[in-house]
């Protein structure tokens, strides 16, 4: 007699348990959907968790306006297929309303501005639990996250004063105005995500596969040429075969040289990789504690 | 990496505990570094920080620092989770600090662990904290205990030092309820017996730490005898295709369920038969802990979240009175006759601590009967009365159905963790 789950199946089971706890414990949850692989995997897990019913909560996309067109097309297709509601929070609108001021200068990005739009969207729709694709292996501040992460009525995270989280007994109790961030795939690594996508044959945006693209070299990464970045004097666009390991706003997402044009090749490449995936993210490079600082304010 | 090999990998969750300066962070750094789980950009960052601190070697302990305050103060504040994998297993480390709120954090880290790694400084031997760590590991019923006698390089890799610590620990652990204990002499700083076998301790015949982590048998850590299925939520699609579908969704907490099984719903006592078990859109022939599945029953019974499905001839205890070992986790002691929210499996009720029988001195294991006030980090045997029935098992039979937490109604904070006796 041998009753044993392999580790991917055990992670899947844990994540499905968390998704179901969210629906049971909260009134108005949502998935924060970026169009990246992690939020795609969560959406896939939600489809499994509530089958044969539809996913019983909306997807929320915080749109910086600086998108890869491929991400938006993928998002719309997925929403149609699943029959779920899509809610878009627009950073452009937040700027137009004068709630935030657009950054200027050489490395200007709308990354930090998203936090205001995100918190406004949560308040407008009265979401009490927002599920995100953050993983503890990604970044040192994220290694300290709970599955159920409490946020005060300003949306802030207090990492030094978190509720202890024991066994699989999740405490989603809160006062009016407060909310939770929930991270169903906390225990997955980048490799787990890719193995799972491969195993389950989950559709992902074409940007993850190697393709030809006009890019510039900036901060040790290949940054895509788009309408939203200004080339500096010494920067010259070149056409290279690259792929993206993570997907975010087009202004901060760097690509890597790659020939991996199938899921199998991506898995091989990830297994052999000597750099972390966030190494190509401009947003994490601003300081040693860039992620912790943003998370305390209410970032993803 | 080979796709098939990756899919066959097992998951081992372990917790680490150690005192200040006994090299816990260095050991984890060493495990990650020698198993090639550190990426170049992480290494560069730590090299830069080491240079900035004026060190002439790479400070491996910096790999485990997370928060700004931790980096500044050189301490670990909160439980942090780390990940690494070898071709055999994937590992999740719950790294718990040895000083601040030690019991609270250790209990938290231990609650999900298959294995506990306890560090002893070879120069100091067993100290109070060693006893405390081992006691908490046994209290939380972690099935496997690995004792690493660290800093062997500072005692000239002396076999006698190691043997006398082993002897001392065994004498102490006879009082504990731990069945599987292994001892390994290591030097986290120099790398002896962590991933690579030590050149300096040929007298040691056992495996390295990594080898032990890769080979400890964890197949029987879940209870596959007593069938327990706490209902999380009821799935009713209301669609044309699945008009009458009524599925009980949950994660199996114990035993093996099969279609055709005669089952009983608790606390109502209604009986029915399993008509189907779904793993997403597949029907499965059997399902076991810890799978998340959806169960359909033959009869349209009234059951929902918090109820439990068991086998007719093997049921959980339905009770409002619980005898519990309680770990108090909040700065404020319980208020007299205060009501708490009790969370047990997917069930929730109000509850009151009706009696504190005794506290346990976590260092000496002695019972304290003359002081019954519960302070942060205290462990006590208490009686709890719940306002509605709880479907409970003894914690040493089933960690899922034998555990509970108490939540303060006023602050919503988790104030205690309990293990049902």
Explain this structure to me?
- The complex is a heterodimer of chains A (300) and B (421).
- Chain A has 300 residues and is of the alpha/beta class.
- Chain A has two domains: 7-188 and 288-297, Rossmann fold; 193-284, no CATH class.
- Helix content of chain A is 31%, strand content 16%.
- Chain A contains eight helices and ten strands.
- Chain A has helices at 7-25, 37-50, 69-82, 91-96, 114-125, 190-200, 263-272, 290-297, and strands at residues 29-32, 59-63, 86-90, 129-131, 148-151, 179-182, 211-218, 221-224, 238-244, 255-257.
- A six-stranded mixed sheet of chain A has the order 3-2-1-4-6-5, with helices on both faces. In chain A, strands 8-7-9-10 form a four-stranded antiparallel sheet, with no helix packed on it.
- In chain A, α1 crosses α2.
- Chain A is globular, with a radius of gyration of 19 Å.
- Chain A starts with 6 loop residues before the first helix and ends with a helix.
- With 421 residues, chain B is of the alpha+beta class.
- Chain B has three domains: 3-215, 3-Layer(aba) Sandwich (Rossmann fold), CATH 3.40.50; 228-311, Translation factors (Elongation Factor Tu (Ef-tu), domain 3), CATH 2.40.30.10; 317-420, Translation factors (Elongation Factor Tu (Ef-tu), domain 3), CATH 2.40.30.
- In chain B, 19% of the residues lie in helices and 34% in strands.
- Chain B is built from eight helices and 23 strands.
- Chain B has helices at residues 3-7, 24-34, 40-52, 68-73, 102-110, 128-139, 159-173, 209-215, and strands spanning 10-17, 80-85, 89-95, 115-121, 144-150, 180-185, 228-230, 233-235, 247-251, 256-257, 262-266, 271-279, 282-283, 287-288, 292-297, 308-311, 317-328, 339-344, 347-360, 367-368, 379-392, 403-408, 414-420.
- In chain B, the strands form four sheets. In chain B, strands 7, 8, 9, 11, 12, 13, 15 and 16 form an eight-stranded antiparallel sheet that branches. Chain B has a six-stranded mixed sheet with strand order 2-3-1-4-5-6, sandwiched between helices.
- In chain B, α5 packs parallel to α6 (128-139).
- Chains A and B meet through α1, α2, α6 and α7 of A and α1, α3, α4, β2 and β3 of B.
